[in-house]
Design a protein that fits this description.
- The structure is a single chain.
- With 202 residues, the chain is an alpha/beta fold.
- Helix content is 35%, strand content 10%.
- The protein contains seven helices and five strands; from the N terminus they run ααααβααβββαβ.
- It has a five-stranded mixed sheet with strand order 2-1-3-4-5, covered by helices on one side.
- Helix 7 links the parallel strand 4 and strand 5.
- Helix 2 packs across helix 3, helix 3 crosses helix 4 and helix 6 runs parallel beside helix 7.
- The longest helix is centred in the C-terminal third of the chain and has 12 residues.
- The radius of gyration is 20 Å and the shape is globular.
- It binds FE2/S2 (inorganic) cluster.
- The site of FE2/S2 (inorganic) cluster has 11 residues, from helix 5.
- FE2/S2 (inorganic) cluster binds next to helix 5.
Protein backbone atom coordinates (compact mmCIF):
# COMPACT_ATOMS: atom_id res chain seq x y z
CA UNK A 1 0.00 0.00 0.00
CA UNK A 2 1.41 3.35 -0.97
CA UNK A 3 0.42 6.24 1.23
CA UNK A 4 0.06 8.37 -1.87
CA UNK A 5 -2.28 5.82 -3.40
CA UNK A 6 -5.85 7.01 -3.02
CA UNK A 7 -7.69 4.82 -0.52
CA UNK A 8 -10.33 2.57 -2.06
CA UNK A 9 -12.47 3.01 1.03
CA UNK A 10 -13.77 6.54 0.97
CA UNK A 11 -16.35 8.21 3.19
CA UNK A 12 -19.23 9.70 1.17
CA UNK A 13 -19.09 13.07 2.90
CA UNK A 14 -16.69 15.32 4.68
CA UNK A 15 -17.56 18.50 6.54
CA UNK A 16 -15.32 20.49 8.84
CA UNK A 17 -16.51 20.20 12.42
CA UNK A 18 -17.59 23.44 14.13
CA UNK A 19 -14.18 24.13 15.63
CA UNK A 20 -12.30 23.55 12.37
CA UNK A 21 -14.90 25.46 10.36
CA UNK A 22 -14.20 28.47 12.56
CA UNK A 23 -10.44 27.92 12.17
CA UNK A 24 -10.81 27.66 8.36
CA UNK A 25 -12.63 31.00 8.28
CA UNK A 26 -9.90 32.60 10.39
CA UNK A 27 -7.20 31.16 8.11
CA UNK A 28 -8.73 32.54 4.92
CA UNK A 29 -8.89 36.01 6.48
CA UNK A 30 -5.06 35.98 6.41
CA UNK A 31 -5.30 36.44 2.66
CA UNK A 32 -6.72 39.41 0.75
CA UNK A 33 -10.10 39.17 -0.96
CA UNK A 34 -9.73 37.24 -4.19
CA UNK A 35 -6.64 35.37 -2.91
CA UNK A 36 -8.34 32.94 -0.53
CA UNK A 37 -7.16 30.00 -2.61
CA UNK A 38 -3.74 30.54 -1.03
CA UNK A 39 -5.20 28.92 2.10
CA UNK A 40 -5.51 25.56 0.35
CA UNK A 41 -2.50 23.93 2.06
CA UNK A 42 -3.56 25.03 5.52
CA UNK A 43 -7.11 23.75 4.96
CA UNK A 44 -5.89 20.40 3.65
CA UNK A 45 -3.78 20.05 6.78
CA UNK A 46 -6.77 20.92 8.95
CA UNK A 47 -8.86 18.28 7.15
CA UNK A 48 -6.10 15.70 7.61
CA UNK A 49 -5.91 16.39 11.35
CA UNK A 50 -9.68 16.10 11.70
CA UNK A 51 -9.78 12.83 9.75
CA UNK A 52 -7.24 10.78 11.70
CA UNK A 53 -4.15 11.75 9.69
CA UNK A 54 -5.47 11.25 6.15
CA UNK A 55 -7.46 13.24 3.59
CA UNK A 56 -10.44 11.59 1.87
CA UNK A 57 -11.57 12.72 -1.59
CA UNK A 58 -14.74 14.15 -0.04
CA UNK A 59 -12.54 16.55 1.96
CA UNK A 60 -10.75 17.65 -1.22
CA UNK A 61 -14.16 18.37 -2.78
CA UNK A 62 -15.31 20.21 0.32
CA UNK A 63 -12.20 22.41 0.36
CA UNK A 64 -12.52 23.12 -3.37
CA UNK A 65 -16.09 24.34 -2.76
CA UNK A 66 -15.07 26.30 0.32
CA UNK A 67 -12.29 28.13 -1.54
CA UNK A 68 -14.25 28.37 -4.80
CA UNK A 69 -11.49 26.67 -6.75
CA UNK A 70 -11.55 23.77 -9.22
CA UNK A 71 -11.48 20.33 -7.57
CA UNK A 72 -8.51 19.26 -9.72
CA UNK A 73 -6.38 22.12 -8.38
CA UNK A 74 -6.92 21.06 -4.77
CA UNK A 75 -6.35 17.44 -5.80
CA UNK A 76 -3.03 18.42 -7.42
CA UNK A 77 -1.83 20.07 -4.20
CA UNK A 78 -2.94 17.12 -2.05
CA UNK A 79 -1.20 14.59 -4.30
CA UNK A 80 2.00 16.63 -4.76
CA UNK A 81 3.15 17.28 -1.19
CA UNK A 82 4.45 14.41 0.94
CA UNK A 83 2.92 15.90 4.11
CA UNK A 84 -0.56 14.85 2.98
CA UNK A 85 -1.73 11.26 3.33
CA UNK A 86 -4.46 10.08 1.00
CA UNK A 87 -5.11 6.74 2.67
CA UNK A 88 -5.30 5.69 6.33
CA UNK A 89 -2.02 5.73 8.27
CA UNK A 90 -3.43 4.94 11.72
CA UNK A 91 -3.72 7.11 14.83
CA UNK A 92 0.06 7.38 14.96
CA UNK A 93 2.00 8.22 11.82
CA UNK A 94 5.72 7.69 12.37
CA UNK A 95 8.20 9.38 10.06
CA UNK A 96 11.81 8.25 10.33
CA UNK A 97 14.39 10.67 8.96
CA UNK A 98 17.08 8.77 7.05
CA UNK A 99 18.90 11.73 5.46
CA UNK A 100 22.71 11.87 5.94
CA UNK A 101 23.11 13.37 9.48
CA UNK A 102 20.49 10.99 10.87
CA UNK A 103 21.77 8.12 8.75
CA UNK A 104 25.34 8.38 10.05
CA UNK A 105 24.02 8.59 13.60
CA UNK A 106 22.09 5.33 13.33
CA UNK A 107 18.75 6.11 11.62
CA UNK A 108 18.60 2.62 10.13
CA UNK A 109 18.53 1.19 13.66
CA UNK A 110 15.34 3.21 14.17
CA UNK A 111 14.02 1.77 10.91
CA UNK A 112 14.75 -1.70 12.31
CA UNK A 113 12.73 -0.83 15.42
CA UNK A 114 9.77 0.22 13.24
CA UNK A 115 10.03 -2.97 11.20
CA UNK A 116 10.04 -5.09 14.33
CA UNK A 117 7.30 -3.28 16.22
CA UNK A 118 4.94 -1.93 13.51
CA UNK A 119 5.21 -3.66 10.16
CA UNK A 120 7.86 -5.18 7.97
CA UNK A 121 7.29 -2.67 5.21
CA UNK A 122 6.99 1.06 5.40
CA UNK A 123 3.64 2.55 4.28
CA UNK A 124 1.82 -0.40 5.80
CA UNK A 125 -0.57 -0.35 8.75
CA UNK A 126 0.30 -2.29 11.89
CA UNK A 127 -1.77 -5.41 12.63
CA UNK A 128 -4.15 -3.47 14.89
CA UNK A 129 -4.36 -0.64 12.31
CA UNK A 130 -3.19 1.85 14.94
CA UNK A 131 -0.02 3.08 13.25
CA UNK A 132 2.32 2.99 10.30
CA UNK A 133 5.80 4.24 9.50
CA UNK A 134 7.64 5.74 6.59
CA UNK A 135 11.19 6.86 5.73
CA UNK A 136 11.41 10.58 5.00
CA UNK A 137 13.96 13.21 4.06
CA UNK A 138 15.43 15.71 6.56
CA UNK A 139 12.90 16.96 9.11
CA UNK A 140 15.11 19.88 10.14
CA UNK A 141 16.27 18.51 13.51
CA UNK A 142 19.70 17.29 12.34
CA UNK A 143 21.47 18.62 15.46
CA UNK A 144 19.49 16.07 17.48
CA UNK A 145 19.95 13.19 15.03
CA UNK A 146 18.75 10.52 14.75
CA UNK A 147 15.11 11.37 15.18
CA UNK A 148 11.54 10.47 14.33
CA UNK A 149 8.34 12.45 14.04
CA UNK A 150 5.12 10.99 15.46
CA UNK A 151 2.11 13.00 14.32
CA UNK A 152 3.12 16.57 15.29
CA UNK A 153 5.88 15.73 17.80
CA UNK A 154 9.64 15.22 17.39
CA UNK A 155 11.51 12.51 19.33
CA UNK A 156 15.24 13.11 19.15
CA UNK A 157 18.70 11.77 20.08
CA UNK A 158 17.33 8.25 19.73
CA UNK A 159 18.74 4.75 19.45
CA UNK A 160 16.99 1.49 18.67
CA UNK A 161 16.10 0.64 22.29
CA UNK A 162 14.63 4.07 22.98
CA UNK A 163 12.64 3.96 19.76
CA UNK A 164 11.23 0.55 20.67
CA UNK A 165 10.20 1.90 24.06
CA UNK A 166 8.47 4.91 22.46
CA UNK A 167 6.59 2.68 20.01
CA UNK A 168 5.62 0.27 22.81
CA UNK A 169 4.27 3.21 24.78
CA UNK A 170 2.08 4.50 21.97
CA UNK A 171 0.85 0.98 21.18
CA UNK A 172 -0.16 0.68 24.83
CA UNK A 173 -2.04 3.96 24.81
CA UNK A 174 0.61 5.92 26.72
CA UNK A 175 1.89 9.33 25.67
CA UNK A 176 5.71 9.32 25.46
CA UNK A 177 7.38 12.67 26.03
CA UNK A 178 8.69 14.39 22.90
CA UNK A 179 12.13 16.02 22.73
CA UNK A 180 15.67 14.80 23.34
CA UNK A 181 16.17 11.28 24.69
CA UNK A 182 19.69 12.14 25.92
CA UNK A 183 18.40 14.74 28.33
CA UNK A 184 19.26 17.79 26.31
CA UNK A 185 17.14 20.93 26.41
CA UNK A 186 16.24 21.54 22.78
CA UNK A 187 19.58 21.27 20.92
CA UNK A 188 21.95 22.58 23.59
CA UNK A 189 25.56 21.27 23.57
CA UNK A 190 26.17 18.13 25.61
CA UNK A 191 28.48 17.88 28.68
CA UNK A 192 27.66 21.44 29.79
CA UNK A 193 29.88 22.94 27.14
CA UNK A 194 29.07 26.55 26.43
CA UNK A 195 31.47 27.16 23.56
CA UNK A 196 33.44 24.91 21.26
CA UNK A 197 36.68 26.39 22.70
CA UNK A 198 36.02 24.84 26.12
CA UNK A 199 36.82 21.45 24.68
CA UNK A 200 40.50 20.74 23.99
CA UNK A 201 39.74 18.83 20.84
CA UNK A 202 37.30 21.39 19.48
S1 LIG B 1 18.99 14.76 8.62
FE1 LIG B 1 17.52 13.98 10.01
S2 LIG B 1 16.60 15.77 10.75
FE2 LIG B 1 18.00 16.52 9.29
Amino acid sequence: MSLKKISKDQPENFEFNDENFKKANIIIKNYPEGKHQSAVMALLYLAQKQNNNWIPLAAIKNIAKFLKMPYIKVYEVATFYSMYNLSPVGNYFIQVCTTTPCMINGAYKLVEACKEKISKNQKELSKDNSCSWIEVECLGACVNAPMIQINDDYFEDLNKEKTIKIIDDILNGKKPKPGSYRGRTNSEPENNRKTLLQNKNA
